[in-house]
Amino acid sequence: MTEGIADALMMVKANVPANVTLVAVSKTKPEAAILEAYQAGQQHFGENRPQEMQAKSEALPEDIHWHMIGHLQRNKVKYIISFVYLIHGVDSERLLQEIDSRAASTGRIVDILLQGRIAKEETKYGLEYPELDGLCKQIRAGEYPNIRLRGLMGMATFSDNRDQVRAEFETLASWYKLKKEEMGEHFDTLSMGMSGDYDIAIEAGSTMVRVGSAIFGSR
Ligand SMILES: *Cc1c(COP(=O)(O)O)cnc(C)c1O
After folding, report:
1. Which residues are registered as beta bridge partners of 111?
2. Which residue out of 5, 12, 15, 25 has the highest number of ligand 1 atoms within 8 Å of its CB and is therefore the one to mutate?
3. How far is CA 105 from the centre of its chain?
4. Residues 93-106: tens digit of each pLDDT
5. C-alpha pair distances (Å), 127 with each of 56, 76, 207, 215
6. How far apart are CA 164 and CA 18, in angstroms?
7. Pure H helices in the chain
8. Disulfide: which of 37, 132, 153, 213 matches 113 by Cβ 3.0-4.6 Å?
9. Phi and psi at residue 46, to the nearest 5°
10. In this structure, are residues 50 and 79 in contact, taking their beta carbons and an 8 Å threshold?
11. Which residues neighbour 148 within 8 Å (Cβ) at sequence distance 6 or greater?
12. Mutation test of ligand 1: which of 12, 21, 69, 118 has the most ligand atoms closer than 8 Å to its C-beta?
């Protein structure tokens, strides 16, 4: 099941420039598969289920950086708050409040990304630009002292239409540029690009790609 992970990882890495962080998306995959990638030099892993990520973090090496990449429910923040490296999909004020207060009781400053809604598909989570702008203003005003906004995250429409995907990534990149001017030096992460579209995302300015099936095989 885990055959060839190190090779697949090398092939993906060859397409990812050194200034772009590769997050290996290991959701649903066994710990042995993660360990194989880790032993091949991979340190950043992405999961989308809080309890699964918690269990894996307890079983696997302590210096792994765990990324929460999917939609996060408020009542599950507690499972990951003590160890999560970066929360990608923050898409509401209430979730931001929950992360901030849990971070405070854990004594951590927790890094997050705001998720922008860029896909045409109706089902995707994320903030429209005005909402995203409003949350950035609150953060700048110091309303969430236990979180640190590191940047933006987004998912393009799942489509073979590469022009559409490119246009969606370019939209997020333009929002990122606007916010970067206001938010200062810690705002340095633009998380976009998955197995099927990370090449386009990198061309559009991504600084962090989240790649699962191209490394671990299909789920
Ligand atoms: C599953 C997932 C990925 C990785 O998808 P692949 O197509 O397997 O590379 C990236 N980002 C998010 C938010 C995901 O849920």
Report:
1. 148
2. 25
3. 23
4. 999 999 999 999 99
5. 30, 20, 20, 29
6. 26
7. 5-14, 31-39, 50-59, 93-106, 129-140, 162-183, 198-203, 213-216
8. 153
9. -115, 140
10. yes
11. 109, 110, 111, 112, 186
12. 69
DSSP element (H, E) containing 89: strand 86-90
Look up residue 6 and give its two tokens: 């190190």
Angstrom distance (rounded) from CA 199 to CA 15: 8
State both tokens at 95: 């979730």
User: What is the radius of gyration, based on Cα positions, of the chain?
Assistant: 17
Q: Is 191 in the pocket of ligand 1 (CB under 6 A)?
A: no
The two beta strands, 147-153 and 189-191, are parallel
Say how many residues make up the chain.
219
> What is the amino acid identity at position 159?
S
Neighbouring residues of 177: CB distance < 8 A, sequence distance ≥ 6: none
Which are the contacts of 75, defined by CB distance < 8 A and separation ≥ 6? none
pTM for this entry = 0.96
